[in-house]
Design a protein that fits this description.
mainly beta; Immunoglobulin-like; 12-stranded mixed β-sheet; 3-stranded antiparallel β-sheet
């Protein structure tokens, strides 16, 4: 496994696999299987007892002792998977179902203790009554990229340098080897997002004169915001023209 499990498992999920096993007898739905991992410094920790659902649909299940789950009758197309569990922040994670590669969906939860660690390093309070947004630049970023959400968050975003949150509004890039080449990612994390707004839109900006970036999902896509949930927005970058 790569050294940065936190991002590796998110990328493994949303960018590599979205469903497996085909439909449930209905051409408009699929069976989705996967595993929920803890998003923290310890690598690859599976989490039991996590409720996994599909936003806006009466579909949910609970992970078993090995953190695995199966969801039946998931609508094909763009969906948001959700994870919730006591002692954790949940995630709202965008997927397209089904995905031709098939395989095992990797979802995440974030331990309360990890968020408390961020608060201590940053000297900030991250309210569990609010939601949060994490713009994940999964490839092509070089550092210095930025982003925004609308409606805006109550606090400025911050980034991460490896496992350490950094109080700056442009991203720090992390690199690892994947399939024989160097992959890059960076994060811009927006705390204090008001769940009363219901949803947000997101935009991204490349590093001036270095990169050009775009949000990866459908143009104008809205993202659900819920209390004590981190909504993931995926973005990619390429060299500036």
């Amino acid at each position: 496994m790569q050294p940065h499990a936190r991002m590796f498992w998110i990328l493994l999920g949303a960018l590599a696999v979205a469903a497996c096993g085909g439909g449930d007898g209905d051409a408009d739905t699929s069976t989705v299987t996967g595993t929920v991992y803890s998003w923290e410094q310890t690598e690859g920790i599976r989490v039991a007892g996590v409720t996994v659902g599909v936003y806006g649909e009466p579909i949910s299940t609970t992970t078993d002792a090995d953190g695995r789950f199966t969801l039946l009758n998931v609508p094909n197309g763009e969906v948001f998977f959700t994870t919730t569990a006591d002692g954790y922040w949940g995630l709202v994670d965008y997927w397209v179902v089904p995905d031709e590669s098939g395989g095992n969906v990797g979802l995440n939860v974030v331990p309360d203790a990890e968020v408390t660690r961020w608060e201590g390093i940053l000297g900030r309070s991250i309210s569990a009554s609010d939601g949060a947004v994490d713009i994940l630049y999964y490839d092509g970023a070089e550092g210095g990229e930025s982003g925004a959400i609308d409606p805006p968050a109550g606090d400025d975003p911050f980034t991460f340098d490896l496992w350490t949150p950094m109080d700056q509004t442009t991203i720090i890039v992390e690199r690892w080897m994947c399939e024989g080449s160097v992959c890059t990612f960076g994060e811009l994390f927006f705390p204090s997002v008001n769940p009363a707004n219901g949803s947000i839109t997101a935009s991204v900006t490349g590093a001036p004169g270095v990169t050009s970036c775009e949000v990866d999902e459908s143009p104008g896509k809205t993202y659900p915001i819920m209390p004590k949930m981190i909504t993931i927005v995926y973005a990619w970058c390429e060299p500036a023209q």
